[in-house]
C-alpha cells in the first residue's frame, strides 16, 4: 500500500467497522423495541425518532462542517454516538430505560450520525483524489463495503440476539462507533485550507461582505447566523438549478420511505409473526447483501463501460417492489430469501452511479453545502417510512401493509422509463466547472442526490 492511499484505506476501514455495527443495530433495534414494548406502532416511532434528527443534521450541517472541519466533526460525532448508544443497554440492564428515554437517546444517535455521515461524504472525494484512484471505481468500492457490512452484520446480529439478546448487540454497535472514530483520527489527516478563504464560494461578494468578524456581542452572532443562511442557500440554489433534480428527488424520497418501512417495521414483523425467530431477519438481510456484494464486484470491474441509464433503471425496478410482494404472498422462507438475493444483485450498481454523479457535478468548494441538503432531501422519506409502516402494520394485516408500500415503490421506479430527463444519466457533465458556477450560469443537468 502506497503512503498516499493510507488515508483512503483508513477512511474505508473506519466506515466498514461503523457500518457493520450499524447493520447489526438495524436488526437489533426494531427487535429490541418489539420485544420490550410489543407494539408495531412504537417500533415505527423509534425509527422515526432516529431518522428525523438524522435528516435534519444532514440538511443543516454543511456550514457547520466548513466552520469546524469535516474530519473533526466525523471523529467527534462517532465518539459522541458511541456514548449515546451505549446508554441504551446500560439503562436497560439497570431497569431505568423508559420508552421516552429510549426515544431521546435514539434521537441523539440519529442527530450525531447525521453530522458524522455528512462529514465522511465531504472527506471522501478529496481522499479519493489524493489516492489517485478513479472516482467511479472508488464509489463502487465504497458501496461494496457497505453491502459487505450488511452481509456480515445482519446475520451476526440475528445469531447474537438469539444467543444473547438485542441489548448486547446495541452495545456492540456503540463499540463500533468508538473504534471508527479512533481509526479516522489516526489515519485521515485534517485538510489544510488556504488562510483567509472559506470552503464554499471563494470570492462570492455576498458571502465575503457578510463575513465581518469585527462586530461585538449580538452583532457577531447575527453576522454568523447570516453567513450560515447564506452558505446554506448557496447549496440549495445549486440543487434547485440541476434540471434532473426534481425527478431524482422524488424517486429517492419514495424509495427510501418504502425501504425504511421494510427494514424498520415490515421485515421485523415478518420475522416475528411468520418465521418466528430473529435469525430469519438476519438471513433476510444477508441474502440481500450477498447479492449486492456479488453485483458490486462485477460492477466495480465494468463500471466505466456500462450505460448508466439502463443499469440504474432496471436495477431499481427489480430491486424494489418484488421484495414487498414476497413478504406479503410467499409462505416458503427460501423463496423470500431468493427474491431478496436477486434484489440485492440488481441494486448493486445504483449507489455507485449516484455517488459518481454527485462528485462529478458538485464543485469541490460547494460539497459541504450541497451534499448535506442533497442527502437530507433524499432521506426525508425515511422518518415517515418507519412511522407510517408502524401505523399500517398496527391497523392492517401485514400482507396489506407490504403491498401498499410495494405498490408505491413500483410506480416510482417505472417513472424513469417514460420521463425523457432520465436519459441524462448517460451524459454526465464536465467536472471542470468553477466553484459557484451553479449560482452564476445555467448549470449542467444531472443528479446530485445520493441514495441511502
TrEMBL record:
InterPro entries: MFS, MFS_dom, MFS_trans_sf. Coiled coil: none annotated. Residues 427-452 are annotated as: Disordered. Gene3D superfamilies: MFS general substrate transporter like domains. GO terms for molecular function: transmembrane transporter activity. Residues 244-452 form the Major facilitator superfamily (MFS) profile domain. CDD domains: MFS_MefA_like. It holds the Pfam family MFS_1. The chain crosses the membrane at residues 12-34, 40-61, 73-92, 98-115, 145-164, 170-188, 244-267, 279-302, 309-330, 336-358, 370-391, 397-419. It comes from the Bacteria. The keyword Cell membrane applies. It is a multi-pass membrane protein. It is found in: Cell inner membrane. One of its GO terms (cellular component) is plasma membrane. Belongs to the major facilitator superfamily. Drug:H(+) antiporter-3 (DHA3) (TC 2.A.1.21) family. This is Multidrug efflux pump Tap.
Amino acid at each position: 500500500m502506497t503512503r498516499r492511499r493510507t488515508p483512503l484505506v483508513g477512511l474505508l476501514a473506519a466506515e466498514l467497522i461503523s457500518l457493520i455495527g450499524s447493520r447489526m443495530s438495524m436488526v437489533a433495534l426494531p427487535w429490541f423495541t418489539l420485544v420490550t414494548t410489543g407494539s408495531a406502532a412504537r417500533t415505527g416511532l423509534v425509527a422515526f425518532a432516529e431518522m428525523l434528527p438524522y435528516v435534519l443534521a444532514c440538511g443543516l450541517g454543511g456550514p457547520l462542517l466548513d466552520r469546524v472541519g469535516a474530519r473533526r466533526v466525523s471523529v467527534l460525532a462517532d465518539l459522541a454516538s458511541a456514548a449515546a448508544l451505549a446508554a441504551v443497554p446500560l439503562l436497560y440492564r439497570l431497569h431505568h430505560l423508559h420508552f421516552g428515554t429510549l426515544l431521546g437517546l435514539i434521537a441523539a444517535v440519529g442527530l450525531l450520525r447525521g453530522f458524522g455521515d455528512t462529514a465522511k461524504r465531504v472527506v471522501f472525494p478529496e481522499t479519493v483524489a489524493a489516492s489517485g484512484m478513479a472516482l467511479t471505481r472508488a464509489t463502487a468500492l465504497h458501496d461494496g463495503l457497505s453491502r459487505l457490512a450488511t452481509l456480515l452484520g445482519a446475520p451476526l446480529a440475528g445469531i447474537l440476539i438469539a444467543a444473547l439478546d438485542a441489548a448486547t448487540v446495541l452495545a456492540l454497535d456503540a463499540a463500533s462507533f468508538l473504534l471508527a472514530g479512533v481509526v479516522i483520527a489516526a489515519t485521515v489527516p485534517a485538510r489544510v485550507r488556504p488562510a483567509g478563504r472559506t470552503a464554499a464560494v471563494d470570492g462570492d461578494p455576498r458571502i465575503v461582505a457578510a463575513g465581518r468578524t469585527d462586530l461585538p456581542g449580538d452583532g457577531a452572532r447575527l453576522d454568523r447566523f447570516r453567513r450560515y443562511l447564506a452558505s446554506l442557500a448557496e447549496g440549495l440554489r445549486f440543487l434547485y438549478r440541476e434540471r434532473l433534480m426534481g425527478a431524482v428527488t422524488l424517486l429517492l424520497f419514495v424509495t427510501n420511505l418504502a425501504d425504511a418501512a421494510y427494514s424498520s417495521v415490515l421485515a421485523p414483523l415478518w420475522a416475528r409473526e411468520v418465521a418466528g425467530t430473529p435469525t430469519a431477519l438476519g438471513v433476510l438481510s444477508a441474502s440481500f447483501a450477498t447479492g449486492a456484494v456479488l453485483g458490486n464486484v462485477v460492477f466495480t470491474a465494468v463500471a466505466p463501460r456500462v450505460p448508466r441509464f439502463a443499469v440504474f433503471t432496471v436495477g431499481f425496478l427489480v430491486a424494489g417492489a418484488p421484495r414487498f410482494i414476497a413478504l406479503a404472498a410467499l409462505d416458503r422462507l427460501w423463496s423470500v430469501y431468493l427474491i431478496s438475493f436477486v434484489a440485492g444483485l440488481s441494486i448493486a450498481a445504483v449507489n455507485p452511479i449516484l455517488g459518481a454523479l454527485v462528485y462529478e457535478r458538485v464543485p469541490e468548494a460547494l460539497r459541504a453545502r450541497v451534499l448535506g441538503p442533497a442527502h437530507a432531501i433524499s432521506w426525508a422519506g425515511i422518518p415517515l417510512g418507519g412511522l407510517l409502516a408502524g401505523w399500517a402494520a398496527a391497523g392492517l394485516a401485514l400482507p396489506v401493509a407490504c403491498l401498499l408500500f410495494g405498490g408505491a415503490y413500483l410506480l416510482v421506479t417505472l417513472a424513469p422509463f417514460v420521463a425523457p430527463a432520465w436519459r441524462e444519466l448517460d451524459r454526465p457533465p464536465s467536472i471542470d466547472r468553477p466553484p459557484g458556477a451553479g449560482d452564476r450560469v445555467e448549470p449542467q443537468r444531472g443528479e446530485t442526490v445520493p441514495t441511502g
